[in-house]
Every structure is written in C-alpha cells, then in structure tokens.
Amino acid sequence: MLTLAYLKEKPVTNAPSFLIETRDPPAKKAIMLAALDLFVARGIEGTSIRDVAEKAGYSNPALYKHFASKEELAFALFERCYGEMSAWLDRTLADTEGPFPERFEKLIAAYTGLLDKCPEASIYVNENLAAFWPKMPAAQKKRTLITRYREILAAGRKEGAVTNGQEEELLVVLVAGTLAQFSRMIYLGGLARPAGKWAKPLSKLLLRSLS
C-alpha cells in the first residue's frame, strides 16, 4: 500500500467519463474520485469515511447524503469500473477486423488506452472481484470479462494463431493475469507512463506466449 504522505500529495484522479456522470452533483463526483484513489492505494478496509470526505473536500454528512455507507460507495465504484471495462471489451471486439494477431494487438492498444484514462479502475476491479461479484446484476454475470477473453482466444484457436497444446483456462489466466499485473506496474510507476507506449511490446509478448 502507498503511504498517507503520498496520498496527500497525489491529486485526485482526473475524472474519467465512466466514473462520474454529468447528472452527478459536484459532491458526489468528488467523493467517488477520492474514494477510488484511496480504496486502491490503501484498500477498502484501510480507508475510513472520514478519509474519503477529507480527501474529497466535503464533510461526512455530505458523503452520507449520496451513499448510505462505505460499503455502498465501494460497490457503486465497482459497478461503474467493471461496467466500463466490459463496455471497453465489447467496443473493441465489435470494431476489430482482420487476422487474430492484428485484432489482438488492437485489443491491447485499447486496454493500455483505458489505463491511461484511469489505471485505478482495472486494479480496483481485480482486487475486489471476489467481494463484490456475488452482488452484481444477473445480466452482468452472464457475460463476464473472463468470458470475453475466452471468446477472443477461441477465435484465435480457430485460425491456428493460438496453441491447442495448453488448456484453454490457462491461456485465459495468462492474458487476464498479465494485464492485471501490467495495470499495477503502470499505477505504481514500475513501468513508465503513458501505458500506450507499451502496447506493441506487450501484445508481441502475449502473442508469442499464446502461439
């Protein structure tokens, strides 16, 4: 986890369009942005309502006006972050044509673009999936991020670009796990930003591993 001193110096995340909505009042926008920064850096359990309110620049009562509890706020963030990642994958898959390696490269480029908007979203989803997934709407559960990765790899297998010599689920773990760790490295500074500059070498590494 990052230090409190770092958090006080770190500006609130630039507001990505998926995290806040135009109809959200200013207090709610600030609270959600502050909460995402703190929840990712310190964990939900390590963050208090007072911490969120202080970072957002509002009082505790202002926070409770929009969210009945810290747990409700945390889940609202998870829903929005997961929803954007799902929509990102669907948009990318719908817009890509050509052979599998080319489509896969576009997929990784889109993912790094999402990280350049808000790396916290990916980290928050991956680290809180087990806690919040049971609460997600049934429609969302029918088509998960993992389901989408599996479909991408299945298409690659049909073209002969993805190996048949490994279990399908291990290949899904390879892609999903690599992207999750890449997100952490970008967020923590282990890899220099922008994330987009790593798109081509990352896609080449994964394609080589998948072939």
Automatic annotation (TrEMBL):
Residues 25-85 form the HTH tetR-type domain. This is Transcriptional regulator. PANTHER family: HTH-TYPE TRANSCRIPTIONAL REGULATOR BETI, HTH-TYPE TRANSCRIPTIONAL REGULATOR RUTR. It comes from Tepidicaulis marinus. Keywords: DNA-binding, Transcription, Transcription regulation. PROSITE patterns: HTH_TETR_2. InterPro entries: Homeodomain-like_sf (IPR009057), HTH-type_TetR-like_transc_reg (IPR050109), HTH_TetR (IPR001647). It comes from the Bacteria. GO terms for molecular function: DNA-binding transcription factor activity; transcription cis-regulatory region binding. Residues 48-67 bind DNA.
